[in-house]
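Appendix B, Record 12. Input sequence as logged:
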Amino acid sequence: MMNTSCPRVSFEFTGRFLPTVYFLVFTIGLVANGWGLKSLLQKWRKLEIINVFVLNLGLADILYLLTLPFLMVYYFMRRKWIFGDTFCKITRFCFNLNLYGSIGFLTCISVYRYLAIVHPVRMMGRLTVTHSVAISIMVWLLVSVQSLPDIFYTKTSGNTTGKCYDTTHKRYVEDYLKYSLGWTLTGFCLPFLITLGCYGHVIVILCRKNTTDEVLKKRCLRLLIILIVLFSVCYIPYHVFKNLNLWSRVLLKQHMCREWSNGVYIAHQISRGLVCLNSALNPLIYLHGNEDIPAQLRQLLQRARQAVSRLSITPTQFSQV
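Logged structural output:
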């Protein structure tokens, strides 16, 4: 439905929702990624090909997590950015590096699993750690090139409001929508289709081969479930609602209002919270790929239970004195 007067979009939801999500992701993500990276680095000499991609995945997460405290301050101050235009662009650039770097390295993991299971003889000795390092460097370069145009768009609105836009100012929203659609196609849709095709074929091969190791089947299925969760919860909603929200802003600028504009804005803010969860969910890849981490986790939980039991016993002992 088209209206001549456009209803005001409610921006208050963002200030209530995102800071809480950022705090949880920062706390959980920093601990989980730090623990996972430490475990990988301790076995650097025995580093496998797939762990090189997992290591880069963790580095991308840490890079983004370190920017979250500044965004928390931004939203606690009711969207007043006090850290300058340059740092605003750096913060948004780190988010894009994390997002599309994560998608890129997850795609690399999927392709490697596909080649190792479907073409094990043909690939034997051809894939080395050196190759995986070179591929990782290429992923970083491609993601940086894709993300670089974003920093040339206006990210702050000057001293009057002090905003730090995750996209750009309304003056450039038409151009940004075109850029975002192309970015979504190359940075998300193509890697997603590659990942889907690789794991679809892997599952078919594993189900057909009765001689395939059951442990290998379970590990591949677990990784497939993790990837489905990451894409379904974090990546798909974000890209859908980001572009819908940009389109509604283009229509709003042209005084062509839609009843769904406010709902799309809120959905986009929720998807922004969900997409940053990838930094807390990516460590599940560590749990899948490193057999020592689940054992360490069980030991940590056991120590925690022992500590709690000691604390519960201590007050009783004091009461008896």
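The chain has twelve helices and no strands.
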